[in-house]
Amino acid sequence: MATSPTTLWNDVLGQIRLSHPSLVRGWFADISVGELTHGVMKIVVRNRAQARYLEQHCLSAFVEAAQAATGRLVSLTFDPLEDEDEEAGGALPFGIGAEELILNPDYTFGHFVTGPCNRLAHAAALAIAEEPGRAYNPFFVYGPVGLGKTHLLQAICHAMRPGFRCHYISCETFINHFIEAVENGALHRFRYRYRHVDGLLIDDIQFLAERERSQEEFFHTFNTLHQSHRQIILSADCSPAEIPSLEERLVSRFNSGLVALLDRPCLETRMAIVRTKAKLRCVEVPEEVVRFIASRIDTNIRELEGSLIKVDALSQSQTHPITLALAREALGAEPSRTVTIPTILEVVARRFNVKVSDIQGKKRVKTFTAPRHVCMFLARQLTSQSLEQIGGYFGGRDHTTVLHASRAVGELIRRDAELAEMVEQITEEAKHAGR
Ligand code: ADP
Ligand code: MG
Fold first, then answer.
1. Ligand lying closest to the C-alpha of residue 104
2. In which residue ranges of the chain is pLDDT below 50?
3. How far apart are CA 53 and CA 296, in angstroms?
């Protein structure tokens, strides 16, 4: 008797669970399979975000598993149930080629944990998804890296009613599109596309800093959309007033709606996030391990998830269920201590072979500015001090200096592997130094 596609699919999923556990998501349970015809297995998923996730991250693993399960050279297609039309709308970006930002199927309201740190932002986001363009327009959400800004923006896109033309893009994409449009004499088309949407969501709007022409263009985009009650949602790593060289008129526009901070989550919220992520990834994690993971990391939720993945990977490779001992082995027994700026200063000074007072001083020679900027970058990454507070450790430098310096280091790290490794080592040392 021929095996039914569903049975085959269950075999495929079983194989994936064994060979690629980190790819598995709870929503795989909603996937259904069509007939296997002409060697092509049709996989039906709920929406385009899921189809894209599977195509991008899982295709080769699934094809391998399908071939192993069927013993035949099958291929797969992922077909969304809701067939949104890109031009007509739906929660789709309209980026060009590779720059296109794709919604992450994990970033929904259902998977967003609320706590005192994010309750306001979350409530506003929900209200907007229900009645876009009414209250909270614009909605400006800000906070340090890894605290859920992108997740929240994408959750709004996922939750918009069908047919709502919702454009979600990064600020860099906006700028690149604008530059391309200017160079190609296609401003008219650019404006049409950006101004004929129901909702515009721009992630990391701080990248408008010092981009005069892009700011000018965005100002007009903003006004056109706002006047016709279209929803505008922006995220940034700092408040509007803290974005360096942002025109005053834009600062006041951004402040005219709701500005909400995403703060660092408390232990309870972090534990709830670990539980949610574990469930999403179909990983069984005992409560004591949840607490262990959540208590080690308090600054960045992306790192929290990274720890969970590490623990799961070790459990898979040892074919041993997750226990506290295993989690300790995966993450190291030492809980990370709260890092302070004096610790960072000391570690960096040692590393660069300069005096702490030189880092904190005013001299602008490169020997001192390089470690000074690295310190500012790490202070932003590892502590919960505000830009002003950080500036206070460096002779009262103002917040824009701190922001510039830490961004410049962030950029450099992306291009310079040696520097990246050095900063990584300093981070580890600072985390373990404690004070
Ligand atoms: P940001 O854009 O602020 O740098 P992201 O939105 O990319 O941060 O979030 C980093 C990771 O943390 C993502 O995996 C995201 O799902 C997760 N995350 C952040 N906040 C929450 C939350 N409140 N509940 C669940 N997951 C969260
Ligand atoms: Mg982000």
1. 1
2. 1, 85-100, 435
3. 30
